[in-house]
Design brief:
Largest sheet: 7 strands, mixed
Helix content: 40-55%
Number of helices: 24
Strand order of the largest sheet: 14-26-25-24-15-22-23
Shape: elongated
Distance between the termini: 48 Å
Oligomer: single chain
Number of strands: 26
Radius of gyration: 32 Å
Length: about 700
């Protein structure tokens, strides 16, 4: 059974939900994907589905039947709601801070009536803002409290409510202390983190939706009379007859029954050169038919195709990443119990020492306010924003905040070959006379074969030969400058080379010796230097490619990479990553094709070039442009950002060690608390800005 769970926010939620479901009799598996909210449950026996739903709802989470389209719209609505709440809190905070500055500046001179009026106006602004924007935390806290549980939203709600109520009490009795500004500021910063978290989770889910969209395209199915009808890929069953027209992409695995055509398998295998498809051959989902219609038999349903297998790998990778505990999560888990316990002890201690309830409560709330987690809330986000801005200016787009932390911990890098280390398109190599090049180009301009396109790119614009005909799997034939000519395989032009090489063509013309055209996928200009820099920095380097062995070996030897694998399927790449991770390695995957998507999602961190397909970009943590030189820069910034985050959290901890005793002993006036809280936030931000001036360390 597949369910959608609402309200899960962290790794602790995953453990709580999975443990509750697994405790039911007969449950064999229960896995929650935090990014998508999808809960997959499998069981044997007489267990009824409502019991599974009840086990989850008893923990305070919402449950509904899984609907991918509905899930996407729910995520968008949640993100939009958080953005509106953030805007309201920000508007209220800005206006209340203006009034608070007036009160601070007039301390000692401002009359009680004026001060009370300004506090009252602040309260009028704060009340609707806290009710409207704070409902995100209040509803979550109430849902778990009424079931006897607690989560992070409980202490947050408590701090907001107590700070507001004490401020109202102080205002009504004409006191000098009110904390409307601090409570709304706390709400604003907490909503920033909640909004960013929701956006990251929606972006992570986008990769699975992108792949699902590809897998749900229409297919031309042939009936018993040979008539074609367009149906959804999900309606195809094993044994159905399929028509694959030129330019169409196969969305189910199929066996060719009739027809001969060139096919592009670059998204599936990484092979940059087209191959000839003939009856009896198998085509994997994701393959593009280039030249002639093909008919074949579906070998599996769309749910069992290569695309579905890759979608499963993407979901497994997102699930693994969602359990990653960020530095901020670990800091908050220690910070919140410490602060709230201190505030409670301060309140009880002052009561026992003979202070009045109002005075004791005021000191307890002062402890909460002076230790307002502004510095803690800013420690990671500000660093991430500064780092992301620096990377963006150099052509790299960072997609998630915790990607910096994961990138900084990687020690092993796997590269795809085609389109990553190489340009991804064949280029003409060797010396060819201008006359022969132009002659071959007259035939090549009539074809869309990748090798023909390479000849045209080398020759430039020009005429097309007369009476050109293309013979799939063989080559082209036509009249060039008044004489019959052919461009294609060695057998096609009458050369007995015995090679059968897909990376070369022959051009023959009546009365002339055949000319050999050779092609190669060239390395990127900065590939050698980038690999050398990474090796000097101590990273293990490996190539995993779906391309042919001889091609991968040449690239690996040229770059000085000892470890490489060729003809690797998407599953082979995932298996290799899992083997490395079992050895304790933190793997960084760099790739651009559909065959890399599963490995990109599963890796500890992943990168994709700007020209990669959408699914690969969605599955990666960052997208770079401007060549491979972006990799050492990105890793350097990630390592420096992680160091700055740790420094910021250390400062926040040191600040609280000083501030808490001051607040508990009753020595923190509102002005001191406000200045201390603001100063801590400013120092954390200034420390993060140092990232812009740091030099690359790789």
């Amino acid at each position: 059974m597949s369910l959608t769970v609402r309200g899960a926010k962290c790794g602790a939620c995953i453990n709580r939900i999975e443990s509750a479901v697994k405790a039911l009799p007969g449950i064999e598996r229960a896995r929650l994907n935090l990014s998508t909210g999808d809960l997959e449950v499998g069981w044997r026996g007489n267990l009824k589905a409502p019991k599974i739903v009840a086990a989850v709802t008893a923990l305070g989470y919402g449950v509904s039947p899984r609907d991918q389209d509905q899930g996407a719209s729910d995520e968008q609505r949640e993100e939009r709601s958080l953005l509106i709440a953030l805007g309201v809190a920000g508007f209220a905070m800005a206006n209340i801070m203006l009034l608070s500055v007036s009160i601070w500046a007039g301390a000692g001179e401002m009359g009680q009536t004026t001060r009370t009026m300004l506090h009252g106006i602040s309260g009028v602004i704060a009340l609707p803002a806290i009710i409207f924007s704070g409902r995100v935390f209040f509803v979550s806290a109430w849902n778990v409290l009424k079931r006897g549980h607690a989560n992070m939203d409980v202490p947050i709600s408590l701090a907001l409510i107590i700070a507001f109520c004490v401020s109202v009490s102080e205002t009504l009795r004409g006191g000098a202390d009110a904390y409307f500004d601090a409570s709304v500021m706390l709400l604003f910063f907490l909503l920033i983190g909640r909004f960013l978290d929701a956006r990251v989770r929606r972006k992570a889910h986008a990769s699975a939706r992108d792949l699902a969209a590809m897998a749900h395209r229409t297919v031309m199915r042939l009936d018993a009379r040979g008539s074609a009808r367009s149906v959804r890929a999900s309606e195809i069953n094993p044994g159905d007859q399929i028509l694959l027209a030129p330019g169409e992409r196969a969305v189910v695995d199929m066996k060719i029954d009739q027809g001969v055509s060139d096919v592009d398998e670059s998204l599936v295998t990484g092979e940059s050169l087209a191959r000839s498809a003939t009856p009896g051959m198998h085509l994997l989902a994701g393959t593009v038919n280039l030249s002639r219609p093909l008919t074949g038999t579906a070998m599996a349903a769309a749910s069992d195709s290569l695309l579905a297998d890759i979608a499963g790998m993407l979901e497994a990778g997102e699930q693994r990443r969602s359990t990653y505990r960020r530095i901020a999560d670990r800091a908050v888990s220690l910070y919140v119990p410490f602060v709230h316990t201190s505030a409670l002890l301060a309140f009880i201690g002052w009561l026992l020492s003979g202070a009045g309830v109002n005075e004791a409560l005021l000191i307890g709330v002062s402890t909460l306010i002076i230790t307002c987690p502004c510095a803690l809330a800013l420690a990671a986000p500000v660093t991430q924003v500064v780092a992301a801005g620096r990377l963006f200016r150099s052509g790299t787009f960072l997609k998630s905040g915790d990607a910096l932390e994961r990138l900084a911990k990687c020690d092993y890098i796997i590269f795809d070959k085609t389109g990553t280390l190489t340009l991804g398109t064949p280029k003409l190599t060797g010396e060819i006379s201008p006359e022969d090049l132009q002659g071959a180009a007259e035939l090549a301009r009539a074809s869309r074969h990748p090798l023909s396109r390479a000849i045209v790119d080398a020759a430039g614009a020009g005429p097309i030969a007369l009476n050109v005909r293309e013979f799939t799997g063989l080559g082209l034939e036509g009249i060039v400058r008044g004489a019959p000519a052919r461009l294609g395989s060695d057998d096609w032009v009458g050369v007995n080379s015995g090679r059968g090489d897909r990376s070369s063509l022959w051009f023959s013309q009546a009365g002339k010796e055949p000319v050999h055209f050779q092609f190669r996928d060239h390395l990127r200009d900065d590939a050698a230097e980038t690999v050398a820099r990474l090796q000097r920095a101590g990273y293990g380097i490996e190539i995993l490619s779906g391309d042919r062995s001889e091609t991968v070996e040449i690239v690996a030897r040229t770059l000085g990479i000892d470890s490489w694998s060729a003809a690797s399927s998407p599953r082979d790449k995932v298996n290799r990553l899992e083997a490395l991770q079992a050895q304790g390695h933190k793997v960084l995957m760099v790739g651009d094709g559909l065959n890399d998507a599963g490995a990109l999602a599963l890796a500890h961190a992943s990168l994709a070039p700007g020209g990669a397909m959408d699914v690969s970009q969605s599955a990666s943590d960052a997208i770079y442009s401007g060549g491979l030189a972006a990799l050492p820069r990105l890793i350097s910034v990630a390592k420096q950002a992680r160091s700055v985050m740790i420094e910021n959290f250390a400062f926040a901890a040191a600040y609280n060690l000083v501030a808490v005793p001051v607040a508990i002993t009753g020595h923190a006036t509102p002005l001191v608390a406000a200045v201390a809280m603001s100063t801590s936030s400013i120092l954390v931000s200034l420390n993060a800005l140092r990232l812009n001036a740091m030099q690359e360390i790789l």
